Structure formats: structure tokens, C-alpha cells
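quick one before i forget lol
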Amino acid sequence: MSTQPDLSNPMTPDELARATADAMYANDACSKALGIEILEVRAGYARLRMSVRPDFLNGHEICHGGLIFTLADSAFAFACNSYNISTVAAGCSVEFLRPVQGGDILTAEAVEQTLSGRNGIYDIRVTNRANETVAMFRGKSAQIKGTVIPVN
């Protein structure tokens, strides 16, 4: 029995987004190793969660910015690949707004701002358990050849 979705049957955009996210996550060793969970995926949207483990802390005993960036980048990836068109980052930036303590739980919510031709812009808000914004990330995407889920 195949684990690939049957793309010959039309899916809604949100069903396609979830199927694409499932296929990407199955091959995403980094997100899995960091304990990143997919909470929700829709067309142009993704929400992910990550617990801040003790090994995520830097020399100031706060979460390393690179791990916050990675969570936001993963949310960006799931949102911009949600149309089953292979898409990569063309550029991104992040603003760290408050420190994150060990044991906290971070949520990254990626929202498509625009998709024009092969290029998109996505804003990702990272919040802590108290729903305070700890970082803002903006990603610029570029569609490349291919699909995430093979199309027959």
C-alpha cells in the first residue's frame, strides 16, 4: 500500500498543503531531531512548535538565536511549499525581540504575504508560552523545478 497521496483525485488546497507537509516532514531530519512539531498547515500557512531543551541554551543560558531562526525557517519552508511546487529560500532576515528561557515552548506561525509568479514573501512570528513575540522572521521564497509529492 502506497503512503503517497493519490493526486489523480482532486484535493482541496488545504488537503494538498497537509499532504505536502507530511511528505516534507518525513524527509526532514533536522526538524525531527530538534523536536519540531507541525501543528497546522494550510495553503500559504504553517504553524509549528518546539520545546526549548537544555542543549538549546547558549553561554547566556538563553535559547540560541540560531535555533529560534531554525524553527521560523522550518515554518517558512512548510508554508511556501504548501502548493506542492518545490520552493526554496531566496533570502531571509530575523529580529530577536526578547530572550527565551530553557523549558519554554516556542510557536512559529508563517503567513504568506504575497505570491507573485515564482516569488513569495512570508512573515513568521515566533511566540513563547505566554504568547509574547520573541522574534519576527521574513522569508523570501523562489520556486524551483519539481514538486514535493510526485505528480503522475
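fyi The two ends are 17 Å apart (CA to CA).
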